[in-house]
Specification:
The protein is α/β, with parallel strands linked by helices. The protein is built from nine helices and 14 strands. The two termini are about 20 Å apart.
């Protein structure tokens, strides 16, 4: 099988570097171009020493002329910039976006949550928000693939099967998520310079974090009921990983065993989602460096409530790994290639 030529735009951020580290292991991908702005002329190995002996191109500035011999573009850029690149797509190029540019189905929602006008609103209909285990079978029809955010990945994987089966109530859901500071990007140290990232835990985006929009958008697809949930993200004193603790109310006569069986049956053919034994206590350390999502369903002191724990590596399952999962599904590569 001939290799696909790939361009990575935004190659020096935490997600971009992680993506390259996975792509160099992908036997069906040739990394043709690495693009950046302030990093032009540098080697990617200056951002990660493990890439020192890899045969990779130097970083250059993006130009539409580069796309003449490209099959797939990965964009790990600040929000809005993938919209500009999308305007240069020809019918033979697939765009896989790791940022938020095509996560929302309405341009008005993008303006509301991201405070900027969508610059490629006419292309939203050519894009699909793809959580591989949920709707990956549909992505082959789309030229633009939008990868979910890291927090929503950890939340939607356990909740969507339960909503589809009407096992849990759609109100009073509490989503408490804690992430390593890499999830905020390389600018996290400047943005939070007044906080000691290495020794403190801090909440942010309380009540109005942007990921509320995609969580609600996806959950509404699987319930006709009114949604009511609280999502609060936190930066933890660790580099990578996410642990989400989700508090749910059960529908009448539904038990912990029912919930575990539904999740186990739903994901029994999926390699990367692991449903653990009842009341298992999990940590981010269980999933770091993998494309796995570990899910544990725990009892509450209240009979009609459960607590779900969900752990992922934000840079892999919540970012670069999920992008490669979507790549593999789009081009019929073995699903575990490079993962």
């Amino acid at each position: 099988m001939p290799k696909l030529n790939a361009l990575v735009a935004g190659s020096t951020g935490y997600i971009g570097v992680q993506l390259i580290k996975l792509l160099v292991k992908h036997k069906y991908i040739n990394i043709k171009y690495l693009c950046g702005n302030r990093s032009v002329g540098k080697k990617i190995s200056s951002y990660d020493k493990s890439l020192t002996n890899k045969k990779l191109p130097k970083i250059i500035k993006f130009s539409k002329n580069l796309l003449r011999d490209i099959d797939v573009i990965f964009t790990a850029l600040p929000n809005g910039e993938a919209q500009d690149i999308s305007k240069y797509l020809t019918k033979n190029i697939t765009l896989i976006d790791l940022a938020a540019d095509f996560r929302l189905e309405k341009s008005s929602d993008y303006l509301k949550w991201y405070k900027q006008k969508h610059r490629a609103a006419n292309l939203i209909k050519k894009s699909l928000y793809v959580l591989p285990e949920i709707n990956g079978k549909d992505l082959k029809k789309y030229q633009i693939i939008s990868c979910p955010g890291c927090y929503p990945t950890s939340i939607l994987l356990p909740l969507i099967p339960l909503f589809k089966s009407n096992l849990i109530k759609s109100k009073n859901i509490i989503m408490d998520s804690k992430s390593g500071y890499s999830g905020a990007g390389r600018g996290v140290h400047k943005k939070h310079k007044d906080k000691n990232l290495y020794e403190s835990l801090s909440a942010y985006g309380v009540g109005f974090h942007r990921h509320n929009s995609e969580i609600e958008q996806m959950l509404k697809k699987f319930t006709k009921k009114e949604l009511n949930f609280h999502f609060t993200p936190h930066l933890s004193p660790m580099f990578r990983g996410i642990l989400s603790t989700i508090y749910i109310d059960l529908e009448k006569d539904i038990t912990q065993s029912n919930v575990i069986k539904k999740l186990s049956d739903f994901y029994k053919k999926d390699h990367f989602v692991k449903i653990l034994k009842p009341d298992s206590l999990i940590s981010t350390n269980d999933v770091i460096g993998t494309n796995n999502c570990f899910i544990s369903v725990c009892k509450s002191k209240y009979k009609n409530k459960l607590i779900i724990l969900s752990a992922i590596d934000n840079l892999i399952k919540g970012g670069a790994g999920q992008a490669i999962q979507n790549l593999n599904m789009k081009f019929n590569f073995p699903l575990k290639t490079a993962l």
